[in-house]
Design goal:
Strand content: 5-15%
Shape: globular
Number of helices: 9
Structural class: alpha/beta
Strand order of the largest sheet: 2-3-1-4-5
Number of strands: 5
Distance between the termini: 14 Å
Largest sheet: 5 strands, parallel
Order of helices and strands: EHEHHHEHEHHEHH
Radius of gyration: 17 Å
Helix content: 40-55%
Length: 197
């Protein structure tokens, strides 16, 4: 499906299958997907460590990226790492159709044409089961992981946007992956994106 010309952003709850859906979309559409690669690409460009860039996703209290272009010598290293990651996302999107997972990409690309913003969530039991199977954890450990991860994503999104993570008005499409599965979610996203963009 090489004629596909949109960028798809996927916001996602922990364990809802965002990366799996992105990989499936990449296979079906013949376009690249980016998830943790964004951290590596940003590190290569800036000299920040991958660990530091990754850690920004669990930080809180940064300024809104609304002021990216405002000169500010007082920007912290975390702020600079976040701004660099945002610039990497914008550069990737300028290169052509792709799928970008997480990292507030829907906000970062809000002024780009042909962007389809998706948010994927799942039932808590399915998210806990994913964590239990992936990390061989007890149900209690997995539940803590799910809650911590979603809280960190919510904090990071607010960190960037001063808006609420998962706010329906920020997305073109929201999907519950629990009842239909991840492959079907990819099919729905393609149907939506090809119809309206």
């Amino acid at each position: 499906m090489s004629e596909f010309n949109s960028v798809i952003t996927i916001g996602r709850e922990y364990g809802a299958g965002g990366r799996t859906i992105a990989k499936r979309l990449s296979e079906l559409l013949g376009i690249p997907y980016y998830d943790k690669d964004i951290i590596r690409l940003t590190a290569e460009k800036t000299g920040f460590s991958e660990e530091m860039i990754h850690d920004t996703e669990e930080a809180s209290g940064a300024r809104s990226l609304f002021n990216w272009l405002m000169p500010n010598s007082g920007a912290s290293a975390y702020d600079k790492a976040i701004m660099a990651q945002a610039q990497t996302i914008r550069k990737i999107a300028k290169e052509g159709p792709c799928i970008i997972v997480g990292r507030g990409a829907n906000y970062i690309l809000r002024d780009f044409p042909n962007v389809v913003n998706v948010f994927v969530y799942a039932e808590e039991e399915d998210k806990v089961k994913y964590a239990m199977e992936t990390f061989e954890e007890t149900r209690e450990q997995a539940l803590r992981r799910v809650h911590h991860s979603d809280a960190a994503r919510e904090s990071y999104y607010h960190y960037l946007t001063r808006d609420k993570w998962g706010n329906l008005s920020n997305y073109d499409l929201t999907l519950n992956s629990s009842p239909i599965g991840k492959d079907a979610c990819a099919d729905v996203i393609i149907a939506y994106a090809t119809k309206c963009k």
